[in-house]
From TrEMBL:
GO cellular component, one term: nucleus
Residues in WLM domain copies: 17-210
Keywords: Hydrolase, Metalloprotease, Protease
Basic and acidic residues bias locations: 251-269
Superkingdom of origin: Eukaryota
Protein name (Swiss-Prot/TrEMBL): CYFA0S10e01530g1_1
Length: 290
């Protein structure tokens, strides 16, 4: 007797094409496996990493892993675990896993989480540092510093303007992801036109209060397990850096390269093992919508 077996013909996993990563301060990047449009999620994570690279170099910030998350809590936008051991970002809109947040929103969340590398509570010190990060990012970009190697430089040695470099990267992304980082009082936000500085400050204060309202412990399932993630390791920088040193690349100027917080002792990560025991993960941040 012949029994016909049931065979499942599962589609092979999509081949992920890695974008060029120009941020040696992030150890690895991971996107969720079981969500649609995984390639676009990877592209977004790489673009976020590349855009904050000069800022991370300036402040001496490091992140072991940058991950995608899709939490059950609709207001949860990001997490920083163990002071930079992991930073997790919500890429997709709540209830619309096929729709991604704008690049403006992702960069804003990333800067928020980077502040938590050195500051946990959402207090006056935290928001002062967050404003400083926004201002410094805009300052570096205004000086043409868009990579860790300086003005308008690429790994291939071609010299491009900051606008050309940014456009070349963003053309690979969907139009709805494109955008810039905006600051309080900027003229590029129509909602801010005609408002006084006092009104803008008051609105910013209200937004900050709302952020603190939503800062609570994550729900079960908010933090993805390792088996839910497609981990993509960062590219090997030795060859790229050696090639770059052999060229006449213009590095960051000393005044741009200098770290202002050199004398400040940073909070030590509690992720180190003590006595052979693995410590519990400490979630120090939840970023939420206004």
């Amino acid at each position: 007797m012949v029994i016909k077996g049931k065979f499942s013909r599962r589609a092979p996993p999509p081949k992920i094409k890695l974008p060029r990563l120009m941020n040696p301060f992030i150890g690895s990047i991971a996107a969720l496996k079981k969500r649609p449009r995984q390639q676009e999620a990877i592209d977004l994570l790489y673009e976020v990493a590349n855009q904050v690279a000069p800022l991370m170099q300036y402040y001496g910030l490091k992140v072991k892993m940058l991950q995608e998350m899709y939490p059950k809590n609709d207001n949860l936008l990001g997490l920083n675990i163990n002071h930079g051991s992991k930073i997790q970002l919500r890429l997709r809109r709540a209830g619309e896993e096929n729709s991604f947040l704008s690049m403006d929103e992702l960069i804003g969340t990333m800067l928020h989480e980077l502040v938590h590398n050195t500051r946990g509570p959402h207090d006056q010190v935290f928001f002062a540092k967050l404003d400083e990060y926004f201002d410094k990012k805009m300052e570096l970009e205004s000086k043409g510093i868009t990579t860790i190697w300086g003005k308008g430089e690429k790994l291939g040695g071609d010299r491009l303007t900051p606008a050309q470099i940014r456009q070349a990267r963003l053309t690979k992304l969907d139009k709805k992801f494109q955008g810039g980082v905006h600051r309080l009082g900027g003229n590029d936000d129509p909602s801010m036109k005609g408002k006084t500085l006092q009104e803008l400050v008051r609105e910013a204060t209200i937004r900050r209060i709302e952020v603190q309202k939503w800062c609570h412990d994550p729900d079960v399932g908010d933090v993805p397990n390792d088996d839910e993630l497609e981990v993509v390791m960062k590219q090997d920088y030795d060859r790229a850096l050696n090639k770059k040193r052999s060229q006449s690349a213009e590095p960051l100027r000393e005044e741009d390269h200098k770290r202002p917080d050199k004398g400040v002792k940073r909070q030590e990560s509690e992720s180190s093992q003590q006595g052979g025991k693995t410590p519990e993960i400490e979630v120090i941040d939840l970023t939420s919508d206004d």
